[in-house]
Amino acid sequence: MRIGRAINPADQARVVVVTADEAFEESVRSIFGASAQIGLDVVRGRLADHDGNIDLAGATVIVADVDAGNDAELQALERLMTRIGNSPPLIAVTQNFDETVARYLMQIRIADFLVKPVPPVELVRACARVAKSASHAAAAAEAAEAQIFTFLPAVGGAGVTTLAVQTAMLLLNSGARGKTSTCLVDLDFQHGACADYLDIEPRLNLSEIEPRPERLDRQLLEVMISQHHSGLAVVAAPNRPAEMRLFDPDVVTRLLDLVSSNFDYVVFDMPRTWFSWTDSVLLGSNKLFIVSETTVPGLRQAKQLVDAIRERLGDGPQPQVIINRFVQKLFSPGLRRSDIEQAIGDAFLACVPNDYALVREAIDRGVPLEEVKKGNKITLQLKQFVLPQSNAKAPRDAAGAAKKFKLSWARS
User: Fold this and answer.
1) Which domains does the chain have, with CATH numbers?
2) CA-CA 20 to 30 A from 405: which of 199, 208, 369, 392?
């Protein structure tokens, strides 16, 4: 007697079908229900009735049965595409179909569409085709994935922007045969200072993107990138100090996914405030640096932030603490390096020395520290923990990043 091997749910392809058509539901269950390699989830009702409330975790393919003559259904489909981007791929099934519907479906970038009545073999082939394309795209994206360095302040005024700018400059000039493509992204949309530090005009207009995030592509991104004379690309928005600027997290993560897919290195200058999209940024980072100062409250808040991130992110990138503007004096009653190491524990990374005059001159001139003083002690310290890691690819799990799909049932 031959004993079959149990299928691990993690190895199944998960197909999510949204439909209010009982006949189509019955057909779908007969197509996929008999395969142990496919997990089928049917969401009953119109797409508009479940707007934003469909569990898509681990989905391989989405099949959305929509009424193309119903504006509410088409709007719900567009919102769903904005939410997921192209991952997982979505197949639209419609009863009515014409040139206008076809153009609309292409504009919102669905993976494929079918017209009822749908032959079972065509639905299987369509699911296999879009899943295979998504898998190849994921592999290509992973191979070209940017290295992401994120700087997060533990206290106000810790010098995060200075460290982020100088790290971006180091990475820009780290190529063996010239400059690497590097982008500095200022995510402090209320009080960001990256553009001011580099004396360039901020050009990012999130208010223009937010109504139609699907418009954001490489061409539009180029319009919103500011270029520093060094060759560094900078994504920064004009300051709005009197506004609490809240954006749809899908807009922010779409922007960050696009940036990370078009540059070798990306450096994020984070705000101290925790937003709905902060987890996604931290999870997508290869290196996560928490910046604090040499004070007892600063060390305490850095340690608290480390503990909070470890609890929230679990097995995600491990935070490392940088103590900025550190001054070590003999016979001084102030905090010593050994005190810092004891307070922070295993998350402690390095102390960056203080050189206020150098940093102030670089900021006032809008140039990197190395342009003011070659071989300065701040840049030398940054090199020790930035450049040795820059050539090593580290795994990451960014929200909105391409997913790997397992479709054993689709293999030829």
Assistant:
1) 9-142+401-410 (3.40.50.2300), 146-389 (3.40.50.300)
2) 392
